[in-house]
Each structure stands twice: as C-alpha cells, then as structure tokens.
Amino acid sequence: MFNTDISNLYIQETSFTYFHWSLIYQLKHDQLKLDDLEPSLVHTLIYNILPGGETIFHALCGKKEQMQKLMEICHTSTDIIFHLPLIPDFKGKTPIHKLIEQNDFRSINMVLRYLAFYEMDHHSRFFLKDVYFKFLEKELPNFLTYLNSVLKRTPTLAKIERGLLKHNYPQVFPSKIWYRDQEINQVLFHQNLLKVRTHVRLDFIDLPGIYHYQDPNFEKFIHQLAETKNFEYFTIPSIQSLIEFNYKTVQRYIIYVIIIPHFIFHFIFVCYMNLVYEYRKDNESYIAANIVLCIIMAVFASYFLYGELRQQLSQGVHYLQNVWNYIDLLTPISVITFLILQFLDEMNIDINQDFMRSIMALATFFMWLKIFYALRIFRNTGYMIRSIVEVIQDMGIFLLILFLTIIAFGDSFLRLSSGNEEGFIDNFFMSIVFTYRMILGDFETDNFGNVALPLAIIFWFMCTILDMIVMLNLLIAIISATYERVASNSEKAAYQEMAKLIYENQYLIPQFVKESYAPKNQYLIHVTNQQKVVGQNDHHIAHQIDRNSYQNYGSILNEKEGNKQTEILIKMTVGQYMLSMNQKGNGVFCDGNKLQKCQSGMIPLQSELRNEESDVIYHCYKCQFDYCDTCYNHYGPNSHQHQLVRTTYREIKKQTSYHNGWLCDARFFTPCENKEKFLTDEKEIIYHDEYCDFNLCSSCAINYYA
C-alpha cells in the first residue's frame, strides 16, 4: 500500500478493497454467481491480490462451474478478452497446483485450453513447468494443444528469414529471448552473399529452462515422456526438438562409456571362451593367457557392475521397472560368477561341471544379448529392437493361454503314457516338452502305446488342430498387427526411445558437461528449412509402368488437387507421364532448356552487388526469389512457382538481407545437360507440373533446388 497526494486529496491505493474481497468471498462460498456480475467488474476482480497472495482463481478452485465461467468471461473460443494472471500465492502455489492437490484434472485440462492462447514469455510458463510431468502422466488432451502452441515467432525473429545455411547447422539451439542478430547468424549461416540463400523459419520454443539437464524439472518431465502411452506427444515439434537437443549429448557418452568398452569386453570374452578356456591347462602359454584374460575380464565386469550400481542410485526404484536393466546387471554378475567358479576349480575345490557349464552358457548368452542395447541408440536398428520388444509384450496373454493348452494336452498324454509298460513320456516336465514338439510337427503316433489308443489319437488330433493350426496362426496375426502398429508409429517410437535413453543414461554425463553443454534458463530456437527438393516428400509417386498403376497415380493426383496441391512438381517416370498424357512419340522434353542465364548479364560468381535505388525488381515475398526487369520480361511471370511482385531496390532494401544490395537469381540458371534431346527411357525419373505441363529431368531438379 502507498499514499498519493493530489491537491490535498488523499487516495489510498491497495491491492484489494473490502468490496472486492467481499465479492470474492461470496463467490467462494456460493453466495454469489459470476453470472450476477458485470464483465467489467469481473475484470477488476481478477487483478485483486488477496491476503496470502491469492487471487480469485485460487478462491474458485474446487468450483468447477464457476471456474469454467471465469475462463469463458476472460476468453473467447480463440482469443483473450482479459488477461488472467496465473501467479503463485505466498506459499508458492498457483491455482493449478491447488487443483492438482484436489485431483481436479478435468478443470486443469479446461484451463490448459485457454493458456494456449497466451503469447511468448507469459508468466504461467515459469510457474507451471514443475507440474508439466503431471499433465503427461494424466495424458490431458489439451496439453497436446498447449505444447503445440509453444512455438512462438516474435517479430524480430521473423526478420531472420533467409541465409546460406551451414552444412551441419543445428536444428535446435539455445538462445536468450533478447538476442543479437550476429549471434544467430554465426550459429546458422555462412557469411557468403554470392551463393543462393535458403528460406528459413525460426521459432522460439516457449518452455523456458526445462530443456536443460540441470533444470530441476527436466528429469521428471523426460521420465514421463519415456513412459507415456500416447505417441501423439512425439509429433509435436517442441517435444521433438527438446529430445534431439539433449539426445546427442547422452548418445555420445553411451558410446564412449558403455558401447565401446562392451565391444572390447565382448571381443576378449569370445576369444577367451573359444581359443583359451578349453586348453587353459595344456602348456605354460595357455596358463599365462588364461590368467591375464581372466584378470582383464574381471576388471571389465567390475567396471560395468559399478556403472549399474551408479544407475540404480540415480534412478531408485524406477531402475527395477526396465527390463534392459536386468540384462545389464546380469551380464557382469554372470561373468564374475563364472570367474569365481573357475578360480575355485583351479584351487582344486570340487565344482559341479553341469553347474559350471550352465553359468558359462548364461554368461555367453547375456554378453551377446547386451549387444541389442547397443543397437537401441541408432535410429535404424532401434526401430527394429523396439518392434521385437513390443511384439513380446503383446504376446504375453496369448502365450499364457497357449501354455495352458500345452499343459492340458501334455498332462493328458502323461496319464495315458503311465498306463503302458513302456511309457512314451517320462515325467510331467517332459510331457510339456512332448506337446510343444507336437505342435511344431515333431511327433510319432506309433509311440502312443496300447492303452486307450483311440483316445490318444483324438487328443493328438485336437492338439494339432487347436495348437498347431489355430493358436500358431493366431500368434502370426498378433505379431503382424503389432508390427503394423509399431511401423505406423515408427518415427514417434524413435523419439520415445530417445527419451528413454536420455532418462536411463543421463547419469553417464559428467557434472561439468551438464553445467557447460548449454546455457541454462534460456529458450530453445527451432530451425525449419523451408526449401525442399522437388518431389522429395512423403507422397512420392512411384508405381510400376502399367495402366493399373496409372489409375492409382490418378487417384493420388485427385487427392492432391483436393488439398490445393501443396507440391508444385510431382515425381514420376517418363512412362507414367506418357501414359497420363496419352502421348506417343519421341519422349519427354526437359523444360530446363528454357532457363539459360540472367538476360541482363549478371553472372553466378558476381561479387559486385546492385544497389541502385531505381532498379526494378520482381520479388517473391514467400521465398525471396528475385528477377531483374529483363529476366522477368524474358521468362514471364509463370516461370516462378510463387507470385512475383514488382518493386524497386529503394523499397526492398528495408529488409535486413538486402541492406548491401541485390542480384538477379536467374544468374544461376543453367541449360539442361541433355540439351535438345528428348528423354526416352520409360524408367527415367522426371518432375512434372500438371497445371502448366512443365517438366524437369532429375539433374535439373537438383540444380534448381530452392
């Protein structure tokens, strides 16, 4: 509170008045409804700060209908009327935190819908990031909308729209919200004005700070991403960028700390088992090699066991929830157990050889199995490993039912077998093996004996029908359905696998690297290269050259036309083009021959920029393409895929990228290498514009990438 003296009139300004406090109290205790108040009065109420730092939003927690009404008064279905402050009270709790305590996630989901409207750097982003993981855990539908809305393009960031991207430019990088253009230019662009520049889009990811390993909320957030069942989260650019930004660091340390040491360990282990172990007592050389290799394997096994203990301390009980951790743990334990047994054997202590060989077999099995872990970290192989894991998980209930039928038939055959003088099954365990071999086709009905032979034949017939035909074909159907589901979500699954690897292995990253790999408490910038090579997209037209395939091609064209034809050129073969046009003759002519050079004499490597203010320029505001006046008149307005607007350099130089001057982009035009020849090979790829019957050969399509 403070006092203001205006001409002897004392006015006391407070964060609230008794009148407003009374209204909020009545709303909280159902003595008044928001419908009874004018919107202007509600506007005043939402900015009143009550004792304890609470707002009207805090007071209405638990009043679902009233809270819904408050949000509707402050917002339309698409916009903000009154900016609603979502601030914490003196205990550090926002209204969302209070709703979580009340387990009212339905109201939270409703609020998230409206929070998606708010602009860049809104205060709610800072106060809610510690509960994002709760939204993921509860799979709130509107949290998807909220995350989609966090890509924000500020007016200053929108000015950076064109440049010569570096070969390995980062698709996401951290930056302060108040940045210098030079900082971003150094990260993304080559400073070469003589080459064609790429049209780019930069967006802030308005999730401040949470992208960093050292952020206190990062671990919970990435853990819920790793565990969520909703793949749609991994289609959101902000989530993809956050995962990719952190994955490259953890991947590097997985390779250096786990993969490379394990391959060395595995190589030594395999060489020892196959070249030394069986001959370890033959002569002094083998004895020495046995001792040295056992010591080396003991060191490696201890190293990996120590790493697993570190991970267990880092993750706590979550460590036991991941099947890969059991493989990682059993691998060094089995090797150490084998080495201990071997040491005892060398000390002339009697060791059961069956037990010894079993431990050796298990150690070998786990050593090979851990290689699957190495395959998880790469996109191509990780997708297949995930498919195998998903298939095994989906087979669980089916295998239980199959196992019960095997036991049922096996026990029935055992009862019949025990009635014969020479039984064909020895015990209960072998009865299960007998039935399992039967459903795989390994059976002999001649061994069924003489007791109740017709019943044995009936059981055999039922087993082959039910288990061999029905159950195994059902298993194939389950595997096919699972693989189809995983394949359709392969890109999303790859991002979730990366999130799991980040969560499981962040303990490998040294503390000093976590501190220095990226600045903290900033924003990520998402980089989109908006230039595409024609035809390189998910809708390639690639069919066999026949009339049936052309009908498929025609239906795709109709679908594209219904979607306003976002791709200008469509990839097809010469044969498909000739079928589509009912053309018979010499082949297809490449229209790249019409594009020769700049008609006013500008050359590709011209170093002197044009900067006459009166220069007439035909400019594309969508992709920043420029024609000089001569080239525009020569090539025509339809020679570029977007609209060209007549302007002058005096106007265009207001854009940052044109401060130093301009050049006509037609100077890069080069005639087709096929010259005047027609393309006659029916399998040769061309790129076709169906609207103006414009064609480019493959080499010209690459040349005119822009």
From TrEMBL:
Residues 262-490 form the Ion transport domain. It is a multi-pass membrane protein. It holds the Pfam family Ion_trans. InterPro entries: Ion_trans_dom, TRPV. The keyword Membrane applies. Keywords: Membrane, Repeat, Transmembrane, Transmembrane helix. It is found in: Membrane. GO terms for cellular component: plasma membrane. The chain crosses the membrane at residues 253-275, 287-306, 326-344, 356-375, 395-416, 423-440, 452-479. One of its GO terms (molecular function) is monoatomic ion channel activity. Signal peptide: none annotated. It comes from the Eukaryota. Its main location: membrane. GO terms for biological process: calcium ion import across plasma membrane. PANTHER family: INACTIVE, TRANSIENT RECEPTOR POTENTIAL ION CHANNEL PROTEIN. This is Wd-40 repeat protein. It comes from Stylonychia lemnae (Ciliate). The gene is Contig4189.g4484.
